[in-house]
């Protein structure tokens, strides 16, 4: 393999330097990525987009998501493709002494070590938090688990379990129907975001102290944080939230309402927006009705108001109302498919799709969600094949000098 062109992307590498990218706010940061499935890989992909050099380490069987299909593209799971761009990959069997030595060599050069092994699973390899802190005191070590390292250490870390155990499913679905899961592994994604935030914070602190630290994240804690007003209401007031279908517990009208042909989403967040809505519906009288003048009143009388709104909305199609309401600044939208959502974003000039790699290996992907004015995110490498960068990584480890970092003094706890 040509080290200057890993994965067939044509991306150039630098000689003797661990940081191949020359752009992005994290250029120069090296991340040893020992994660798999979704939360960890999503985190490391975001960091890679920001310019970090991410080395994805997989066991001999590879990341589980390589086999999670359908759907797939050219025989490769799109689940895997969606969270593994901008990385270089190597297979290491940590039970093999030579591969374990390679893993140690990678951590010698890494700024960040991210893993989602079961609690205690890395101890026999000398990669547990205490051993990492002793041997590599500069490293920011992030551990992602399902339910923590205490009494939840034996629970498998699946997003659906977190959705069930956090209470999220109890508030999702129709009032008279069964609990429902989210249409995406939402708490894996939120945990990945939290992990990225934590890594960035710890790197910033290391700039001052010269000392790394251990970060612990788990799906359930991220789920409880991500449920925001629902968990907030439960702990602050004893409120027991329940399934309300597509209705909002605190806002009305806020959800889907049937127009002449199909549903239209309305998001009315204040009294001014409500007055504007009913004006365009030809029902300005509703804004004068004392039952509906305040959000509190609209919540208390939502079923009476719902009938009035549905009658007025039946006069036009969802697209006709969307055009009129959008011009008037009334928050609303049709309900689109995922593909239509991508097309809509493109129509807004958000350029949601990027292309990774070159030629027949090009893979379309969703753009990094943050736009930087000076150090833009980069979209350079297609998701790697299993062990696809072994030669490049081993050559880099042989050539690169381990970075010289300050050794923390006792005054830096």
TrEMBL record:
<keyword id="KW-0808">Transferase</keyword>
<protein>
    <submittedName>
        <fullName>Crotonobetainyl-CoA:carnitine CoA-transferase CaiB</fullName>
    </submittedName>
</protein>
<dbReference type="InterPro" id="IPR003673">
    <property type="entry name" value="CoA-Trfase_fam_III"/>
</dbReference>
<dbReference type="InterPro" id="IPR044855">
    <property type="entry name" value="CoA-Trfase_III_dom3_sf"/>
</dbReference>
<dbReference type="GO" id="GO:0008410">
    <property type="term" value="F:CoA-transferase activity"/>
</dbReference>
<dbReference type="InterPro" id="IPR050483">
    <property type="entry name" value="CoA-transferase_III_domain"/>
</dbReference>
<dbReference type="InterPro" id="IPR023606">
    <property type="entry name" value="CoA-Trfase_III_dom_1_sf"/>
</dbReference>
<dbReference type="Pfam" id="PF02515">
    <property type="entry name" value="CoA_transf_3"/>
</dbReference>
């Amino acid at each position: 393999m040509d080290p200057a062109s890993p994965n067939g992307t044509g991306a150039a590498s630098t000689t003797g330097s661990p940081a191949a990218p020359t752009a992005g706010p994290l250029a120069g940061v090296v991340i040893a990525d020992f994660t798999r499935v979704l939360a960890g890989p999503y985190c490391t992909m975001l960091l890679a987009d920001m310019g970090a050099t991410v080395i994805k380490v997989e066991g001999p069987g590879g990341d589980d998501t390589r086999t999670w299909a359908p759907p797939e593209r050219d025989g490769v799971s799109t689940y895997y493709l969606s969270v593994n761009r901008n990385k270089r990959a190597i297979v290491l069997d940590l039970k093999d002494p030579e591969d374990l030595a390679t893993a140690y060599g990678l951590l010698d050069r890494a700024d960040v070590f991210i893993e989602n092994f079961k609690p205690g699973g890395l101890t026999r390899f000398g990669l547990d938090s205490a051993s990492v802190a002793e041997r590599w005191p500069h490293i920011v070590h992030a551990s992602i688990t399902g339910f923590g390292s205490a009494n939840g250490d034996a629970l498998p870390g699946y997003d659906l379990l977190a959705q069930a155990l956090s209470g999220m499913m109890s508030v999702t679905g129709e009032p008279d129907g069964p609990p429902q899961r989210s249409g995406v592994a939402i708490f894996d994604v939120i945990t990945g975001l939290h992990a990225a935030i934590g890594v960035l914070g710890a790197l910033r602190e290391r700039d001052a102290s010269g000392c790394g630290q251990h970060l612990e994240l788990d799906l359930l804690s991220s789920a409880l944080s991500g449920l925001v007003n629902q968990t907030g209401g439960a702990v602050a007031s004893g409120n027991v939230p329940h399934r309300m279908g597509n209705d909002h517990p605190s806002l009305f009208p806020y959800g889907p309402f049937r127009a002449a042909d199909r549903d239209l989403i309305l998001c009315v967040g204040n009294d001014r927006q409500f007055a504007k809505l009913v004006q365009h519906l030809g029902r300005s009288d509703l804004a004068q009705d004392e039952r509906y003048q305040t959000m509190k009143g609209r919540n208390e009388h939502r079923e009476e108001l719902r009938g009035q709104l549905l009658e007025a909305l039946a006069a036009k199609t969802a697209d006709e109302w969307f055009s009129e309401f959008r011009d008037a600044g009334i928050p609303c939208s049709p309900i689109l498919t995922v593909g239509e959502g991508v097309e809509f974003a493109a129509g807004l000039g958000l350029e949601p799709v990027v292309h990774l790699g070159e030629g027949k290996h090009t893979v379309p992907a969703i753009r990094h969600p943050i736009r930087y004015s000076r150090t833009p995110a980069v979209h350079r490498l297609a998701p790697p094949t299993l062990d696809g960068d072994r030669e490049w990584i081993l050559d880099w480890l042989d050539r690169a000098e381990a970075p010289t970092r300050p050794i923390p003094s006792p005054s830096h706890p």
